[in-house]
Every structure is written in structure tokens, then in C-alpha cells.
Design goal:
Chain lengths: 374, 636
């Protein structure tokens, strides 16, 4: 029986062979779809700024992912706390000294990139908690001692992001964290207590919200309340999706998109644009592609011999599900517009970077699935 | 310890996998929920959202319909179209209204007052309603605006359709005029409502209003694709509209213009009719107004002036003016008496200067009286005393019956004008119903000379004269050429002696000899010495005509005034008699009948008959031209 326990003993060829090609091809496919969709958003502007940037980022970060795939998972394990702290520091920096856009201070200028640390935090929280629960026995999870650290690790970035203010991202960070904690075996009643606590603190949260966020929640309840103002986005998004029909209006022919009726079509509403042009069939196929990617990540997780990889893959799979469903439910008018990108599809470097980092670790989990971390 | 470790490790794996399985199930549910939602929006409700999406992106631009033209009998355009350059704006579609208007003010060099007006209009209207910044741009201004249009988003230069009446006031009372469609126009006509665009002009009066639905035409519709900011991206299609139907009318512009000259400076009316076809050759009312003044909306001062003008330029006196017909009624009174065998033409009456009936004095117009009179002479010299006697013997009800048959007291031009008046031809029954009193004999007497309750429009007298002149046959007055065959009409009129046989031009009398008698008397009245209009005769048989004067009192003359015997200039204008003249000709082979009315003109013989003489010459001179058109049945 061969021992796969150390880095040096596996040949590069064997590593390449053990890549999950289903996942790899799915990611490439998703990348291509995203570039096509981005190209369509550029049509009305007459330049290819967004599609070019998007393709460039995809290329760079995809290469990063490939590179990360071949790095032994144990290094990620050992670097996880440092990564978390680094991202936390960036987050603090962005929250207090960052660039303000549309009333929200969430970007930090790193000269070569305008980084949104809260996006990275979505992944950092999973890495940290995966590492933390790697060693914790199921019996110990529900002890106060083993609960207090994850709680602090989770609540600090949530509060920071909430104060930026960025409701969407903070909710997604919370959901990602809770997913891992729950997987580790926490008693469901703790989650219920926390939820009740949240409900009690709701007035406090509301008071922290910016007026535009309050408006968004009111608008979600009744989009026709102000059809030209805050309800505009939801109404136009539903019109775009609905008018797409079974097979869509055709590539570059989505009128809601190229005539600029669709708000933020590059970012949060990219799915709407895609759905208008490719219809129900295209949308369902895209959803199936996402589901397949999640499925492959779960398979990789279940085959991992180490808990770090397992927790990370499972946690990331659930988080990715949250990103996708929150975004889609939002643009389909079933959740308030909170601002959350669709993984890989949406324009935005930080989101793409964090997705590729996560997928890199997933691929590494696959290649080093037999690695045992002590 | 190790076993424990392995045991707990297995438990941990199991726990994670169990929870992951649960999570995956939940994920599947949510994904199916998303698919369900997509299906609902994209398949179930596709139609609804497709419509909404089209509503978002497609803007329709309705252009004003092009109105049909009016042509005279000879095909000359009497109401045409012209391009009007307008500037519209819809406040809702403008980002910064104030900035836009400031720019427009600079470009068009508008005054502060103009700008104030625009802002006032904006306040009054809903934000999606069009404001017409200017309805009267010159071509230079219009091109200038188009040149700067790229940085004036929301501004709409519009080429609209305006009306042009080349003969100014000549046709105002016949055609009416067009002006901007009002709220009432929109609510009363479905067609106007459908085809309305800001700045659309519709008929307000006359034939322009009557034939609105035929004239209006259909809109050209341009469909544009616009983006979210309302900017036009491209044109999708153009659906061309049709110009409205053009209408040719029976009037001869030359004669119409001439009537305008003849009536200049007077308040009055002229109408001329073909006695066989019923076609109206000229129809004028004075004073008139210039319908072109209404093109850009008439000023409130000008409108007030028109309304308060004592000579009533806005009233079409020919069909809406009601007057006592005076002596012009006498041919009908004589005809009625003959038809009813009440008198013989040889009946003699002595005219002193007045006659007493039941202690009331009735005067003849002629001081010292006419002496002994017979019927023909009484018509010729218009002896009032004789007609008091005829009326007394005839009675008002039998007179009413004959007069009604000849068209008095009823609408002449059916379905042409909304404002035509019926007037009154009294009877004992009418008085009971309308006044609530019994009829007095004295009222019969004054009805016999065309005074009292009797009220006619000038056109009614024209119709009456025409139906006498054609030998006593019914005709149907019209303003639209009917292309009837003249010979057929004439033949039918000759053959149809029987009073009760169905016919398209049935006889109106029992004995056509009675009509001939009356026509002969009218001839003598014009062409023999002592005739009331002898001085206005034309001896040339080509132009020779016959007529009857009328001088209608507008108030009761007191005995003192009768004694005073003032000259016309000494009487206040409003108290002067109306001057009438009815005529037909050429006498040998009559074709045209006419009525001239000069309000407060004094006597018929001095004020109205000379006008008829001039007009007759013109009409006969135009006759051949007109017949050419008729005979060729030229499609004009």
C-alpha cells in the first residue's frame, strides 16, 4: 500500500491525473458563460470595458486557482489563521479608512486592485472554522468553551461589514459561518437561540441601517410602492426575466439589458440579463451547472480523509448555494435587494478572487484527499 | 483511547455527512423553488412581461392626421393645408425643465413673458401632458432647434398641419373654421379622441365641423425603440396614415367673393340657389371674420371684439338670422288664396291709405294709397291694404299650410349646419301652443304682409322663390354637388301635374297656372312702370329677372312717427327697416333664385334690389362655365 502522506512522494503526473476534471470543465464553462453575458452588457456602452476586464480577471484568477490546486492542503491548514487575521485587518482598514461608494465604505485601494475585503472574509471565515473544527470532537462542540471562539471569530467581521454598511455581504458571511458551525455538530437549539437574539436586536440593526437600506426592505414588501424609485430595480428585473420566455430573446437581443432598463446589469443583475437573453431553458441550464459544481465540491469533500478539507468543502458548498440562491431569489423578486453577487458570473474582482481561492483549496482537497493532517 | 478516537472519528464523519445530506436536500428544495419561480415568470406570465417590456422600450409617435381639403364647384381649393412648425415638450420626459427652457429661450430669443407662460402652463397641466412651447416657428427657427436638438433632450420639434383659407372671410360662414381641439371636442367625438395629438386642429363650426369625421384623416404612426433615459435608439416601423377626404361644394368662388364685395359695409345676407338641383351657388353673411385668425388660437381681445360686435360677425345670418319677411311673403299669400279658391285675380280692393278693422287702424306703406287694385297689380306695387283683405279672406291656417309646403318655418339645409334656425310660420294652433292665447284676426292681417309672429331666415325665402320659379315643384337644397340630370328633373317637373303622385320633385300646388300668375306678377313688379323694383330692372332678356321687394318693420310705428315721415338718415340705425329682395331669372328660362337682405337698410327697392341687379349679371355671366362642369361631369 502506497503512502500518500507526504508531498514529495506523489509525482506531478499523478497529481494532474487526480484533478477533478468534471469540476474543472464546469468552472471553465461557467467562466465562458460569464464572459459571454458580460459581453452582452457592454453592447449598449459601445466599448468592451467590462467583458475585457472580466475575461482578464477570470484568466488570472483561474491560473491562481490551478496553482493553488497543486499546493498541499496541509499548508492551507496551517496558514488558515494567518489568512483570517490578514483579511480581518484588511476589513478593518476598509471599514475605517476605505473608499466610500454609494454611501458604503467597503473598498480598500491596494493600488493594483480595489479590494473588497468583505468578499474575502466570506471564504476566510470558512477556512478558519474548518481548521478550528478539524480537531474538535463532536461531543465538545456544544460546550461553551468550544463555542465562544467560533462565535467571536464570526461576530466580529459580521459587525464590521454591517457597519460599512453592507447588509448583503454580512448576511452571507453569517450564513457561511453558521453553515460550518452547524456541520460541526452544534445543537440546533443554539442556532435557534441566536436567531431569537437576532430578532430581539432587530430594532438595533434597523437603526444602524442607512435610509436606502430601509427603503429596500420596504420596497421588497411592496415593489409597486414607488415604481420609479426604489421598486424600479425589482420591477425591471422581473420584466426582463419574464419577457425572456421559454427560450429567451436571443444573444445580444435582450432589450431590457441593452436599453439600460436593467439596473446594475454587470453585477448583481447579471442573471437577469442572462435569463432575458437565454430564457427559461438557459436559466435552468445555468442553475444545473451551478448545482453540478456544488455537487462536485460535495463529492470532493466526502472523499477527503481530513476533516479540514471535508469541513471546508462542505462549508463552501453550502455557502456557494447561499450566494447563488440569495442572488437569484433577489433578482426574481423573492428577497429584498441586498446586494450580493452571483459567483463567477458577476463583475467584480474581489468576488472572483475569493471564489477562485476557495475553488483552489477545493481542488487541492481533491488532489491531496488522502492527506492526513495531525 | 485509540478505539475511542476511532469511534469518535467515525461519529464525527457520520454527523457531518448526515448534516450535509440534510443541507443538500434543503438546497435541492430551494433550487427547485427557483426553477418554479423562473417557470412562473418566464412561461406562465411571459405574455404579461413581454407586453411590459415592449411598453418600456417602444414609444409611439403619432403624427397629426392630414385634413381633407375643401374645393369649390370648379375644383378651386377654398380650404387647404399648410405646414406649421411647432415646438412641444413633455415635462415628465425632461431631466431639468428649467435648464431646458433657458436653453430654448436663448436659441429662439423668447421674451420673459413667453417663458412665464410656459411655466404657468406647466403648473396647470399634468407632467405627462404636452406643453406647446411655440406653435408658430419660422423655418429658420425650426432648423435652428433641430440643429441643437442633440443637447436638448425631451424637446420635440413637430411639423403640424394647419389650415389655410385662401379667400379669407368669403367662406367663413359656410366652412366655419378649425382651431385646437378642446376637451369638449375630445369627449364628444370618439374619432377625434383616437386621432388626437397635441396641437391637432378640428372643425369648430360650419362644414368643417359637420364633415369632421370625413375630413380628419388618419395618423401616421412612427414606432421608436427608446432606452431607459427616453433617448431614441432606432426607428422600428412607420404606419402611414391617409389624408382625410376632400370635399367639393356647390359654391362658385367668383360669385361668393362678389357677394362679399356687395355686402361690404353692411350687415346682411345673400344666398343664391339653382331652382332645379337645389345647389347653393353662393351663400354669404356680413359682416364676416377671417378664419385664418384662428390658426394659432385667437387672442382673447380679438375674440371678445368678435363676440360683442353689434353687427354679429359670428352669426351666419343666412341660416341663423330670423327676420320678418315683409312684402316678400306676398307671392305666397296670393298663391295660397288662389290655390284655395278664396279670391279671383279680378277681385278689387280700394286702397286709401289705411283701413279699420275692429277699431284698429292698418296702414298701407304708400301715403295716400294705391286706389283701386286687382291682385296682379297689388303684388306688383306691393299694396298692403289689398293683402290685408286677401289674408282676412284666406285665414292664417290655410296660408300656413301653403307657406310651410314652400319651405317657410323649417330647416332648409338638412344635416349641413348645427346652427340653422327653423323660424316660425304662425297658425292658430301654433299660437295656442307657443303663446297660450287665441288667435286674433288682426294678427292674420299683418301676417298677410309678412309682419307679426312670422320669422324666416333668408335661405327659407330663397328656397321659396326657387320653388315658385321652377313652377311650383319641390327641390332639395344642398351644398354638395348632386350631379342630377337637369333635363330629367325638368321633364319630371313638367309631367308631374298630379299633386299626390310619388315623385322625387313632387308639385307643391294643385294648379300650376296659379304659380304662373304669381311669377308674372313678380315680373311686372320688376320690369313694368310702377313696379316696386322697376329701377333695378335689366332689359336684356339674357339677364332679365323678376323679383319682389320687402321692407320689414323692426318695431311698431307710432302714429306720431308716421306723421313725422322721417328720412332714412334721421332714423336711428337700429330702428330702420330691414330691406329684402327676392328674385329669380333669367325670366324667359329661369335657373337661379336669390335673396338679398340688408339689415336696417331702409326699403327693399332702394337698398336690396340694386344689389340683386349687379349680382344677377355676375351669375348669368358665370352660368356657361358652370354648365360646362355640370355637363362634362368632370371629376374634380
Amino acid at each position: 500500500m502506497k503512502n500518500y502522506s507526504t508531498f514529495g512522494e506523489v509525482s506531478f503526473f499523478q497529481k494532474v491525473k487526480s484533478i477533478d476534471f468534471f469540476l474543472l470543465i464546469s468552472i471553465i464553462l461557467l467562466g465562458l458563460i460569464s464572459i459571454i453575458a458580460m459581453y452582452s452588457t457592454d453592447i449598449s456602452d459601445g466599448n468592451f470595458y467590462h467583458s475585457f476586464n472580466h475575461a482578464l480577471r477570470f484568466g488570472i484568477f483561474f491560473s491562481l486557482m490551478m496553482l493553488m490546486s497543486f499546493i498541499n492542503i496541509k499548508y492551507y491548514y496551517s496558514l488558515s489563521i494567518i489568512f483570517y487575521i490578514l483579511v480581518l485587518l484588511l476589513l478593518i482598514g476598509a471599514t475605517f479608512f476605505g473608499t466610500t461608494v454609494q454611501g458604503s465604505q467597503r473598498w480598500i485601494n491596494l493600488y493594483f486592485i480595489n479590494l473588497q475585503p468583505s468578499e474575502l472574509m466570506k471564504i476566510a471565515i470558512i477556512i478558519f472554522l474548518a481548521r478550528y473544527y478539524h480537531r474538535v470532537q463532536p461531543d465538545a462542540v456544544n460546550t461553551i468553551k468550544k463555542f465562544i471562539i467560533p462565535f467571536i471569530i464570526l461576530i466580529v467581521p459580521i459587525l464590521l461589514v454591517l457597519s460599512q454598511p453592507d447588509l448583503g455581504t454580512s448576511v452571507l458571511i453569517a450564513l457561511s459561518g453558521i453553515a460550518v458551525i452547524w456541520l460541526a455538530g452544534i445543537n440546533i437549539k443554539y442556532i435557534i437561540y441566536s436567531f431569537l437574539g437576532l430578532v430581539i436586536s432587530f430594532p438595533f440593526v434597523i437603526s444602524m441601517l442607512k435610509p436606502y437600506q430601509k427603503l429596500r426592505i420596504l420596497t421588497f414588501v411592496n415593489p409597486d410602492r414607488d415604481p420609479l424609485g426604489a421598486g424600479y430595480q425589482i420591477i425591471q428585473s422581473k420584466i426582463a426575466v419574464g419577457s425572456g420566455g421559454l427560450t429567451g430573446k436571443g444573444f445580444l437581443k435582450g432589450t431590457q439589458g441593452y436599453l439600460d432598463f436593467l439596473p446594475e446589469k454587470h453585477t448583481d443583475f447579471i442573471f437577469t440579463l442572462f435569463s432575458e437573453e437565454f430564457g427559461f431553458v438557459g436559466s435552468v441550464l445555468l442553475l444545473i451547472l451551478y448545482a453540478f459544481i456544488i455537487f462536485r465540491i460535495l463529492v470532493i469533500g466526502s472523499n477527503s480523509r481530513n476533516y479540514f478539507g471535508k469541513f471546508f468543502c462542505y462549508g463552501f458548498a453550502i455557502s456557494m448555494f447561499f450566494y447563488i440562491s440569495v442572488n437569484m431569489l433577489m433578482v426574481l423578486g423573492m428577497l429584498p435587494i441586498v446586494g450580493s453577487p452571483l459567483p463567477i458570473m458577476s463583475y467584480g474582482g474581489s468576488s472572483m478572487l475569493s471564489m477562485m481561492i476557495a475553488l483552489g483549496i477545493v481542488m487541492s482537497t481533491r488532489i491531496y484527499s488522502r492527506e492526513i493532517i495531525n | 483511547m485509540l478505539g475511542d478516537g476511532i469511534g469518535s472519528s467515525v461519529r464525527k464523519s457520520k454527523l457531518i455527512n448526515r448534516r450535509m445530506f440534510l443541507a443538500s436536500a434543503a438546497k435541492a428544495v430551494v433550487f427547485f423553488g427557483i426553477i418554479g419561480r423562473l417557470f412562473y415568470l418566464q412561461v406562465e406570465q411571459n405574455k404579461k412581461y413581454l407586453t411590459l417590456s415592449d411598453k418600456n422600450r417602444i414609444r409611439e409617435n403619432k403624427l397629426p392626421p392630414i385634413r381633407g381639403e375643401f374645393k369649390d364647384y370648379f375644383g378651386k381649393i377654398i380650404a387647404g393645408n399648410l405646414d406649421v412648425y411647432e415646438l412641444h415638450v413633455i415635462p415628465e420626459q425632461v431631466e431639468d425643465f428649467r435648464v431646458l427652457i433657458t436653453r430654448v429661450k436663448q436659441i429662439l430669443e423668447l421674451s420673459d413673458k413667453d417663458v412665464d407662460k410656459i411655466f404657468k402652463t406647466k403648473k396647470k397641466q399634468k407632467p405627462w401632458e404636452t406643453i406647446i412651447i411655440s406653435d408658430n416657428l419660422s423655418w429658420d427657427e425650426f432648423s435652428k432647434i433641430n440643429y441643437y436638438l442633440y443637447d436638448l433632450p425631451g424637446l420635440k420639434p413637430v411639423i403640424s398641419v394647419g389650415r389655410n383659407y385662401p379667400f379669407n372671410e368669403s367662406y367663413s360662414h359656410v366652412l366655419g373654421y378649425v382651431a385646437y381641439a378642446s376637451k369638449e371636442d375630445l369627449s364628444s367625438s370618439e374619432i377625434i379622441n383616437q386621432r388626437h395629438v397635441p396641437g391637432l386642429r378640428v372643425g369648430k363650426n360650419g362644414l368643417e365641423k359637420t364633415y369632421e369625421n370625413q375630413l380628419i384623416g388618419t395618423n401616421t404612426i412612427q414606432r421608436f425603440e427608446v432606452n431607459a433615459y427616453g433617448k431614441r435608439i432606432n426607428q422600428l416601423e412607420v404606419q402611414n396614415g391617409d389624408q382625410g377626404n376632400s370635399l367639393r361644394i356647390t359654391i362658385d368662388t367668383e360669385i361668393q367673393n362678389y357677394t362679399n364685395d356687395l355686402l361690404a359695409g353692411e350687415a346682411g345676407s345673400i344666398s343664391v340657389m339653382d331652382i332645379y338641383t337645389g345647389e347653393i351657388i353662393a351663400m354669404n353673411s356680413s359682416p364676416s371674420f377671417n378664419p385664418n385668425d384662428f390658426l394659432y388660437g385667437i387672442g382673447s381681445k380679438e375674440w371678445k371684439d368678435l363676440n360683442s360686435n353689434p353687427f354679429k360677425p359670428l352669426i351666419n345670418k343666412t341660416i341663423s338670422g330670423l327676420y320678418s319677411p315683409g312684402s316678400t311673403i306676398k307671392p305666397i299669400v296670393a298663391l295660397s288664396a288662389l290655390e284655395n279658391d278664396v279670391i279671383k285675380p279680378s277681385m278689387q280692393v280700394f286702397c286709401s291709405d289705411s283701413i279699420d278693422f275692429y277699431e284698429q287702424k292698418f296702414h298701407c306703406w304708400k301715403k295716400k294709397g294705391h286706389g283701386y287694385m286687382q291682385l296682379k297689380n297689388a303684388i306688383k306695387q306691393s299694396c298692403d291694404i289689398y293683402f290685408y283683405e286677401v289674408a282676412r279672406l284666406l285665414g292664417v291656417d290655410r296660408l300656413n299650410e301653403t307657406a310651410r309646403r314652400f319651405g317657410l318655418g323649417d330647416i332648409v339645409l338638412k344635416n349641413f349646419f348645427a346652427n340653422e334656425k327653423k323660424g316660425v310660420f304662425p297658425s292658430t294652433k301654433w299660437k295656442k301652443e307657443a303663446v297660450g292665447q287665441n288667435w286674433y284676426l288682426g294678427e292674420t292681417l299683418i301676417t298677410g304682409i309678412g309682419q307679426g309672429y312670422i320669422q324666416t331666415t333668408p335661405l327659407q325665402l330663397t328656397l321659396m322663390t326657387a320653388q315658385l320659379a321652377n313652377g311650383g315643384n319641390k327641390i332639395y337644397p344642398t351644398l354638395i354637388p348632386n350631379n342630377k340630370n337637369l333635363e330629367e328633373i325638368k321633364k319630371e317637373m313638367e309631367l308631374n301635374e298630379d299633386y299626390d303622385l310619388p315623385s322625387s320633385n313632387p308639385p307643391l300646388v294643385r294648379n300650376k297656372e296659379n304659380v304662373k300668375f304669381v311669377l308674372d306678377a313678380m315680373f311686372k313688379s320688376t320690369n313694368e312702370v310702377y313696379g316696386t323694383s322697376y329701377s333695378s330692372r335689366i332689359d336684356d332678356p339674357k339677364y332679365q329677372f323678376a323679383g319682389k321687394t320687402g321692407t320689414a318693420q323692426v318695431k311698431r310705428i307710432t302714429e306720431e312717427e308716421r306723421e313725422l315721415d322721417r328720412k332714412l338718415e334721421q332714423i336711428p340705425y337700429k330702428e330702420r327697416d330691414h330691406a329684402w329682395y327676392i328674385a329669380f331669372g333669367p325670366y324667359k328660362n329661369p335657373r337661379y333664385a336669390m335673396t338679398v337682405l340688408i339689415e336696417h337698410g331702409g326699403s327693399g327697392s332702394s337698398a336690396a334690389a340694386p344689389i340683386a341687379k349687379k349680382l344677377f349679371k355676375k351669375i348669368i355671366d358665370r352660368h356657361e362655365e358652370r354648365e360646362k362642369i355640370r355637363n362634362n361631369k368632370l371629376a374634380i
